[in-house]
Amino acid sequence: MSSQAGPLTRLRRGHKELVLELLSKHGPLSRSSLGSLSGLSRTTLYEIVAELVANGAVVASLPEPAERKRGRPVEKLTLNPGAGQVIGIDFARRAVHVAAVNVAHDVIGTASAAHAAELTWPERVDLAGRLVHSLGDGSLDLGSLTAVGVGVVGPVFNPGDEATPARGVDGLPDLLHERFEVPVVTDNNTRLAALAEATWGAAAGSREMVYLRLSYGVGGGLVFGGSLHRGPQGLSGEFGHIKVVEDGKPCECGGTGCLETVASAGAVLDAYRAGGGTAEDVPALASALREGDATARDLLADVGARVGDVLAGLCNAVGPGLVVIGGELAATGPALLEPLEEALRARVMPLSRQWVDLRPATLGETGGALGAIALVLHESPVLSRYPMNAKSEEDS
Hints:
Blueprint: H1 2-26, E1 29-30, H2 31-38, H3 42-54, E2 58-61, E3 76-79, E4 85-91, E5 95-102, E6 107-114, H4 121-134, E7 145-152, H5 172-180, E8 184-188, H6 189-199, E9 209-214, E10 218-224, E11 227-229, H7 260-263, H8 265-274, H9 282-290, H10 294-318, E12 322-326, H11 334-347, E13 357-360, H12 367-377
Parallel strand pairs: 4-7, 7-8, 9-12, 12-13
Antiparallel strand pairs: 1-3, 2-3, 4-5, 5-6, 9-10, 10-11
């Protein structure tokens, strides 16, 4: 008997870890769904669940009366909400966005704050820390954090690459690891916003999606066959560096005439002011549009047409499907989106037009932070076959 105790104990521990992992990835599950996903026999599963409930790692609950349907109510199993929490942080160019959920997938809260573009990384981390402390009315238990997911501007290379991860953010994972004392997982913030929209937002349930974020940078993400595409070096989604103007303005990527030089929020505001406008930010530009400003209207029409051209090329290359538009500039509404859609449908292959579906993003400015949480939880089927970048986990 004693010779079998070790292997049997390891097997049972493996079964427990499997159940906990599935609840972490998928959120609340019935015993039936958990059995299908785990492949465990009914008897084994029920024994494992009973033990996890008894020790407080898992909680069982019935649906609220308003949510119940006819027949016997189905009990759902979740990780104990007090067993751990996950934070997502999006370090955008001029703002920090944070979100937190517990391991039962309940959203604890979200928060954002704008900052000057020249703010240093230690200062941004301090700002993120203050925002995190404000979540849940200050009730967030930092002692129960399991990980921090982080979105940053620019390429983030795969683990093992010799290239520098994310230009200009050397040491950021170490700063965050020192601050929160948990593993840090990092990826491009725009690709994380695409992940969030594909997981919970406008593209939830879609297997094919092109996401474009028009902010102070321009980028996006691709979902192919139900999976987020990252690329071998983490360089997927750099749509802002597709050339759209011959002999155009220099771009920070080293090229000229890139989409980002005409369709980023900063470029649009600069062009508007050069035409006589006075808007200092995108909300002021949107206000001018509502007041009938012809300069703003004509400018957004031109920008929309150029973006539509790029999106048509992407759709023709990867196949028609869902196109989701996010970012601050999308808040200008029909002035941008109508000429964008007109150009997209005019330039995509005629055979494909009926299959192209254009939608605005639904998760707002915290989409990148929510995508960072999804990256940590690895809870979405959109992340199947997606390489995890967890450099700081090796150091923790």
